[in-house]
Design a protein that fits this description.
There is one protein chain. The chain is about 75% helix and about 0% strand. The chain is mostly helical. It has one domain. The N and C termini lie far apart (about 50 Å). This is Membrane protein YczE. InterPro entries: YczE/YyaS-like (IPR038750). Keywords: Membrane, Transmembrane, Transmembrane helix. It comes from Streptomonospora mangrovi.
Length: about 190
Amino acid sequence: MVGLHLYGAGCALLMAAHLGSMPWDVLHQGLARITGLSVGACMILVGAAVMLLWIPLRQRPGVGTLSNVLLVGVWTDLWLRWLPEPEALPVRCLMLALGILAIAGATALYIGARLGPGPRDGLMVGLTERLPVSLRVARTVIEVAVVAAGVLLGGTLGVGTVLFAVVIGPLTQVLMPLGAVPAPAPAPERSPAP
């Protein structure tokens, strides 16, 4: 739960900085603009729609998956209400950096908890298991498609979007050991009874 709260805070920091959001949030912002719903509500609806795409891909959600769909949008909306929207560029850059760091840390926590992938991660994995594409290709195609759709709908694309795309993977990898929950030990083998 801490990871999902942190994820929502990171998303809100990126949006409040107005320097460009992470790719999926460009889509969420665009949808919010045309529907009148909050960004968080759009996050929840998109997450649920993406989970429907899991059905033909035969992916199985975990409790973490469902929590991700339901809570990240709520936390994002709450944080957007609390955060200022500064005009000073140095403050906006600091918010961008803190947002990226928060999302990387949150990702390490929720993946490390082993309670199920986020809906978007499950889509990516499902595509690689069912189609002859690598993880890299699947992720890139998905991210480019959602950014393009988001921009067409009026979402915020900027230097922060590019910076996020470049640093989120390496930063998450560095932080993964902090959130890792050890895998359960295998059951001991029993010797046959004499």
